[in-house]
């Protein structure tokens, strides 16, 4: 926990095609952390639209950002367009180098990976991109929130709220995080148990995979290229997370050398500690 009399600079990355709840969900938490300043940073000061058309405006440009104590990297479809953006990736790497905490939500993890920051880290991301984490040197952990030292990873979309509350507790203590949670009336009771591929009906999972097929294929090609660029040994054949926990993500067949300490076979659909 950081002393409460230490002022914190918290900043979130904003970009075209972001999934707004990757930004606004954590915003509800991070903007309420005691003794802190929260700002949103974009490549330019111009407004951008999220993947459903919501107009969002940054507070300042990347170049105007001070060294941040907390860096928040959201995801969304627009993440793919930034995977070779030297300005954005360089800014993420520079800010992460001195930040006390780095918070990745959804496919923000892929941006962090493209910046070369995930090697050897336990991480998670949206279920449709979870199988890509090894291409960035990460150790995939199938949990809603994953903590690895100064890093906090939220699996996807609404998981960003959970991750932000965990971050608030790390920064200001459990009571501060609980007060924020109470203010938000954050006590979700969804009407369906369909929030993960393991619990959603198989037909719904199949529809979701089909809808994301083209973007997933594009992300896979990008991940393969970046893995080669970063000289990361990864499985030569991986498959998206199964809709059932019994079906493994990958088997020994088609695997190249894995990072030191990895078993020859791992079922990425189950948490690994």
Question: How does this structure look, described?
Answer:
This protein has a seven-stranded mixed sheet, sandwiched between helices. The chain has helices spanning 20-30, 86-98, 108-114, 159-172, 174-184, 202-230, and strands at residues 8-13, 36-42, 48-49, 55-56, 60-61, 70-73, 101-105, 122-123, 139-140, 145-148, 151-154. Helix content is 31%, strand content 15%. By secondary structure, it is of the alpha/beta class. The protein has one domain: Class I glutamine amidotransferase (GATase) domain (Rossmann fold, 3-Layer(aba) Sandwich), CATH 3.40.50. The radius of gyration is 18 Å and the shape is globular.
CATH class label: Alpha Beta
Output mean pLDDT.
89
CATH superfamily: Class I glutamine amidotransferase (GATase) domain
Structural class, please? alpha/beta
Give a nutshell description of this structure.
The strands form three sheets. Strands 5-2-1-6-7-11-10 form a seven-stranded mixed beta sheet, sandwiched between helices. It has a two-stranded antiparallel sheet with strand order 3-4. A two-stranded parallel sheet has the order 8-9.
Which terms would index this structure?
Rossmann fold; two-stranded antiparallel ribbon; 273 residues; 6 helices; alpha/beta
Give the helices and strands, then pairings.
Elements: E1 8-13, H1 20-30, E2 36-42, E3 48-49, E4 55-56, E5 60-61, E6 70-73, H2 86-98, E7 101-105, H3 108-114, E8 122-123, E9 139-140, E10 145-148, E11 151-154, H4 159-172, H5 174-184, H6 202-230
Parallel strand pairs: 1-2, 1-6, 2-5, 6-7, 7-11, 8-9
Antiparallel strand pairs: 3-4, 10-11
């Amino acid at each position: 926990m950081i002393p409460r009399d230490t002022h914190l600079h918290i900043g979130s990355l904003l970009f075209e095609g972001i999934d707004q709840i990757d930004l606004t969900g954590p915003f509800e938490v991070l903007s309420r952390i005691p003794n802190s300043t929260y700002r949103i940073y974009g490549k330019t000061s111009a407004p951008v639209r999220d993947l459903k058309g919501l107009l969002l405006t940054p507070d300042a440009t990347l170049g105007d950002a001070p060294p941040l104590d907390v860096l928040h990297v959201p995801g969304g479809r627009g993440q793919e367009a930034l995977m070779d953006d030297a300005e954005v990736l360089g800014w993420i790497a520079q800010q992460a180098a001195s930040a006390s905490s780095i918070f990745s939500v959804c496919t923000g993890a892929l941006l962090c990976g493209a910046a070369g920051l995930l090697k050897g880290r336990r991480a998670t991301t949206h279920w449709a991109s979870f199988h890509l984490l090894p291409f960035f040197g990460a150790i995939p952990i199938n949990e809603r929130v994953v903590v690895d030292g100064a890093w906090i990873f939220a699996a996807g979309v609404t998981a960003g709220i959970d991750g932000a509350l965990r971050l608030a507790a790390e920064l200001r203590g459990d009571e501060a995080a609980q007060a924020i949670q109470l203010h938000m009336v954050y006590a979700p009771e969804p009407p369906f148990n369909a929030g993960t591929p393991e619990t959603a009906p198989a037909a719904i999972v199949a529809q979701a995979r089909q809808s994301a097929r083209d973007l997933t294929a594009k992300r896979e090609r990008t991940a393969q290229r970046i893995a080669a660029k970063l000289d990361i040994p990864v499985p030569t054949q991986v498959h998206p997370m199964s809709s059932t926990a019994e079906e493994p993500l990958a088997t020994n067949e088609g695997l190249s050398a894995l990072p030191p300490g990895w078993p020859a076979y791992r079922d990425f659909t189950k948490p690994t500690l």
